Amino acid sequence: MIYLHATDERHREIADSLSAMAKAELKKAGGNRSGTQRARRRKKRS
Protein backbone atom coordinates (compact mmCIF):
# COMPACT_ATOMS: atom_id res chain seq x y z
CA MET A 1 0.00 0.00 0.00
CA ILE A 2 2.79 2.45 0.76
CA TYR A 3 4.26 1.94 -2.69
CA LEU A 4 0.94 2.67 -4.37
CA HIS A 5 0.38 5.69 -2.19
CA ALA A 6 3.80 7.10 -3.04
CA THR A 7 3.19 6.47 -6.72
CA ASP A 8 -0.14 8.29 -6.58
CA GLU A 9 1.51 11.26 -4.91
CA ARG A 10 4.22 11.34 -7.55
CA HIS A 11 1.66 11.19 -10.35
CA ARG A 12 -0.18 14.11 -8.74
CA GLU A 13 3.04 16.14 -8.54
CA ILE A 14 3.79 15.44 -12.20
CA ALA A 15 0.24 16.33 -13.26
CA ASP A 16 0.33 19.57 -11.26
CA SER A 17 3.65 20.55 -12.81
CA LEU A 18 2.42 19.83 -16.33
CA SER A 19 -0.75 21.78 -15.64
CA ALA A 20 1.21 24.81 -14.49
CA MET A 21 3.45 24.64 -17.56
CA ALA A 22 0.45 24.35 -19.88
CA LYS A 23 -1.30 27.30 -18.22
CA ALA A 24 1.81 29.44 -18.66
CA GLU A 25 2.06 28.54 -22.36
CA LEU A 26 -1.63 29.21 -22.95
CA LYS A 27 -1.37 32.57 -21.22
CA LYS A 28 1.59 33.47 -23.45
CA ALA A 29 -0.28 32.31 -26.54
CA GLY A 30 -3.37 34.40 -26.17
CA GLY A 31 -5.22 34.98 -22.97
CA ASN A 32 -7.74 33.10 -20.93
CA ARG A 33 -10.59 32.50 -23.36
CA SER A 34 -12.12 29.05 -23.36
CA GLY A 35 -12.68 26.99 -26.49
CA THR A 36 -16.33 28.01 -26.54
CA GLN A 37 -15.43 31.68 -26.30
CA ARG A 38 -12.95 31.36 -29.16
CA ALA A 39 -15.48 29.52 -31.33
CA ARG A 40 -18.23 32.07 -30.72
CA ARG A 41 -15.95 34.91 -31.65
CA ARG A 42 -15.28 33.49 -35.12
CA LYS A 43 -17.16 35.01 -37.99
CA LYS A 44 -19.51 32.69 -39.80
CA ARG A 45 -18.63 31.80 -43.36
CA SER A 46 -21.30 31.36 -45.93
Give the CA-CA distance, first to last residue: 60 Å
Relative strand content: under 5%
Shape: elongated
Q: How much is the average pLDDT?
A: 78
User: Would you report the number of β strands?
Assistant: 0
The helix fraction, in percent, is: over 70%
Rg is 18 Å
Task: Give the H and E element order.
Answer: HH
> What structural category arises from helix and sheet content?
mainly alpha
Uncertain regions spanning at least 5 consecutive residues? none
Main sheet properties: none
The DSSP helix count reads: 2
Report on this structure.
This protein has 46 residues and is mainly α. It has two helices and no strands. The longest helix has 29 residues, at 2-30.
Top keywords for this entry?
single chain, about 45 residues, 2 helices, mainly alpha, elongated
Question: What's the helix and strand layout?
Answer:
Layout: H1 2-30, H2 35-41
Short description:
With 46 residues, the protein is mostly helical.
